[in-house]
Specification:
four-stranded antiparallel beta sheet, single chain, two-stranded antiparallel sheet
Length: 105
C-alpha cells in the first residue's frame, strides 16, 4: 500500500537559495512518516532526478536531517532567478511534483 507524500509530510516547500539555486524542504510531523520516506527511497537523489527530469549534477545538496525529521535538497536552476523566461522568480512554486508522490509502505 502506498501513501502520497502530501499525506505524510506536514510541510513541503521550495524557495530560492540564491539566484541560481532552489532548495526544497520536506518536514514531517512524526518520526514514523519521516522514516518511512527515508527507508522507501522515494526522495533519494535518483528519485529527485526522475521526479524533476534533471541530471544528477544539478543536485548540489541532499540531506536527511534526523533531529528535525526533515529531508532537504537543493537544485541548480536551469537559468538564474529573474532572467528572461523564468516563470518563478522566488522558486516558491517548484514543489508541486512532490505532492502526489507515492510512498510505498
Amino acid at each position: 500500500m502506498s501513501t502520497r507524500l502530501f499525506d505524510l509530510a506536514k510541510t513541503i516547500r521550495s524557495k530560492n537559495a540564491g539566484v541560481d539555486r532552489i532548495t526544497f524542504d520536506v518536514i514531517f510531523a512524526d518520526r514514523a512518516g519521516y522514516e518511512r520516506v527515508c527507508r522507501s527511497g522515494a526522495l533519494s537523489r535518483e528519485a529527485v532526478c526522475r521526479i524533476f527530469g534533471i541530471a544528477p549534477d544539478r543536485i548540489t545538496d541532499h540531506v536527511h536531517f534526523d533531529p528535525a525529521l526533515a529531508i532537504k535538497f537543493t537544485l541548480r536552476r536551469a537559468a538564474p532567478s529573474g532572467s528572461p523566461g523564468d516563470g518563478d522568480i522566488f522558486g516558491a512554486q517548484q514543489y508541486g511534483p512532490l505532492l502526489d508522490l507515492e510512498v510505498p509502505q
